[in-house]
Amino acid sequence: MSRSRGFDEYGRVGEQRFRGAIEAARVGARGAIVRSIGTGKHRLAHTGATQYDPKVPMIPFAAIAVEDADYLHRKLERGTVTVKMRLGARTGPPAPSANVVGELRGRERPEEIVLVGAHLDSWDVGDGALDDAAGVGMALEVARLLRDARPRRTIRVVLFANEECGLSGAKAYAAAHAAELRRHVAAMEADAGGGAPIGLGFNVDEAARDRVRRLVGPLEALRVTDVRHTEHAGADLMPLTGVPQLALEQDATDYFEWHHTDGDTADKIDPIQISKAAGALAVLIAELADGEPLPRAPSPSR
Amino acid sequence: MSRSRGFDEYGRVGEQRFRGAIEAARVGARGAIVRSIGTGKHRLAHTGATQYDPKVPMIPFAAIAVEDADYLHRKLERGTVTVKMRLGARTGPPAPSANVVGELRGRERPEEIVLVGAHLDSWDVGDGALDDAAGVGMALEVARLLRDARPRRTIRVVLFANEECGLSGAKAYAAAHAAELRRHVAAMEADAGGGAPIGLGFNVDEAARDRVRRLVGPLEALRVTDVRHTEHAGADLMPLTGVPQLALEQDATDYFEWHHTDGDTADKIDPIQISKAAGALAVLIAELADGEPLPRAPSPSR
What we know:
Mean pLDDT of chain A: 94
Distance between the termini of chain A: 35 Å
Radius of gyration of chain A: 21 Å
Strand order of the largest sheet of chain A: 3-5-4-6-9-7-8
Oligomer: homodimer
Number of strands of chain A: 9
Low-confidence stretches of chain A: none
């Protein structure tokens, strides 16, 4: 895929990795290989979650670096190619993990909650610096910056367990706090790396666009001006049915160079850019915790 | 090291890899690790030839990626670190290999030779696309471009065996052609990747500077204007004592991103830039084969 500022292309190209094993098995493949879907050309495979479908055989499926995919293509142009696959990955038994939750209690309406989240786990290659240590750092920095601000509503920081393999932390949070979800006035998740803030996505009724636009007013000097509707404000927010969800958009031009590869290490985070992102997130969370509430999202039955 | 257009810094920083094992053993080390000396941050180790000194113990010595070196540094700031080294590299027995030599015979003075070289081998990681398939391609392209030009002197293309581990191909060439070396009027080696041409280095008496400058006159439109004295016109040229040596300088800004790493694959060559480099080399070789000879280099006894 090509380098671009947003995440849009990942959703589209990602299907090759998400569904490659299913589609290949459907046409009779004994195994399948996917060309890495990141933008990097560093001989590192971009890996990640893969789906299987019980209706077709569960075949071996591996990601290879773009350079190696190019090599295979060149060989295939000249004739039949035999590939021997030896995969080291295996699925271990389930193990306990936990969400980490902390709060800055609201001054006037402590029962109303603004959630700011990130996820604690990472894919197994690399160190998960971009995905999602960056987000964890940002969420904690929001709490640090707003510690003495005492807004009207409660700010709840939630560091979710197990985003990568099925959102079990997010689902457990939604289940444990089901009675409270209607008092979640907004939720955001920092899970887009350490890049500079560039905009704000909203998964709220289109009628709220003006209200959302006012939220980014104080961020104009940082060029956080790109306000757009999104269906995907954060993976861990998906189980929070009915809760108005927003997403700080961050510059992702370099993100897919390293995301889900061995190269996702701490040096890929630019301290200046992530500071801007954390600051912008704090401004948004403070305003959500103090200001006029957003309209509730349509219920899933609509 | 930092990204720069020339190779200069490699010579300086390279000492850490060339001599690290010796210097560490000298102060009592049981093993040593060198931070990769390339410019890349892709979790790939930059490897290459390492020297040992029989006067000190031959200790295990490994290169690690810059990310991992950073990690070690962070750990060391907090206290003692124990590292377990398990190295897979080993030195195999010598095996036969061969130089490949071809000629375009000169029209008037076939006994006088202009040598254009490159090397066939590469370091064991990656595919050696930049080092030195690029150079081999350029040398062959020079022969193709000049096939029908029939210059006065003979153009000899030499693809050297085993540059990486001791220049045995170059030494064998110099020995086999010892009687002929005084009739080598110039030698060049393409061993600087696939980047655009930017200048010309000369390992010839400083008095020849004006003559060298005239050589690049036709290349001004390509901005090949940086003419400078160099002690290192090409590793495989070192045994060619007394032969005037020139080096086409190429833009190496990206070269050390991939050089001697697993990422040195064909996609790192830009066809447009290497075409310019091969064309520039052909212009220089044609002029050397047709024009006024360069002064002989000082003999090593001087």
